[in-house]
From TrEMBL:
Predominant subcellular localization, coarse grouping: cytoplasm
Protein purpose: Catalyzes the conversion of epoxyqueuosine (oQ) to queuosine (Q), which is a hypermodified base found in the wobble positions of tRNA(Asp), tRNA(Asn), tRNA(His) and tRNA(Tyr).
UniProt keyword terms in alphabetical order: 4Fe-4S, Cobalamin, Cobalt, Cytoplasm, Iron, Iron-sulfur, Metal-binding, Oxidoreductase, Queuosine biosynthesis, tRNA processing
Native source organism of the sequence: Flavobacterium fontis
HAMAP family cross-referenced by the UniProt entry: QueG
Name the UniProt record assigns to this protein: Epoxyqueuosine reductase
Cofactor: binding comment: Binds 2 [4Fe-4S] clusters per monomer.
A GO CC term assigned to this protein in UniProt: cytoplasm
PANTHER family: EPOXYQUEUOSINE REDUCTASE
Known pathway: tRNA modification; tRNA-queuosine biosynthesis
Cellular localisation: Cytoplasm
Amino acid sequence: MNNQKQHYSQFIKAEAKRLGFLSCGIAKAGFLEAEAPRLERWLHQGFHGEMQYMENHFDKRLDPRLLVDDAKSVISVLLNYFPAETQQEDTYKISKYAYGKDYHYVIKDKLKALLHSIQTEIGAVNGRAFVDSAPVLDKAWAAKSGLGWIGKNANLITQKTGSYYFVAELIVDLELDYDPPTTDHCGTCTACIDACPTQAIVAPYVVDGSKCISYFTIELKNQLPETMKGAWNDWVFGCDVCQEVCPWNRFATPHQEPQFNPHPDLLSFSKKDWEEITEDIFKEVFRDSAVKRTQYQGLKRNIDFLK
């Protein structure tokens, strides 16, 4: 039986690699005991701001067996999005993860293909793919399956490649061979805490989401707080500062996913281009991008706030 579990696990990891995933780890599905009090404390302190959805499905967030009947294993995958080229200097910036096609679609397709391969090879396996849009603690599961550790900026970090990747998972009702977690390699480094433009990393490993530039530029639908004027370092969608200063991201290498390549005009946009962006240009440049989440008016609001 153990040999079979090992064989299945090796097959799944090989398939994940074939589909373009950076890496794949497997953990036993169960209640996330260590995460429960942390999540409760985080919500209690209001660090989720107006992201009310974070309060929903508390139990499901902590136990994948409530999401998939008879869940046995959580298969976590990483997909690199680090770009070969970045935006020009002195312009309004968007987070690197939003350069290309919306990752939800790209990863969902790959995970469906992975599940199909598992069913073809192994038989009747029931499973569901999750890409950051359901109540699953992605990073906790990835860390549990040895893909990296959760850093002081609350991102998953890997020694060989840093943190510029998406985390997603497939929860299945199949017993597999489980990977041990890795160790924390942040050490005494506080680069991310020191560099955060809005002091959103309120303690090592604790991010006040309601102070994060990503929250203001993407999640917050109301008026932007005047107290934040001048603190955004030209970010109009998301923010990469805590990743840019992380020493482990020295090892980031460009992704090989054509769907993540940016629209040709994006990288050369000047501040003037951003300020004069029309709804038609917005639709053209960000047609399939995650930037669509802010909608045209939201992006304009963010740009006007920085002018």
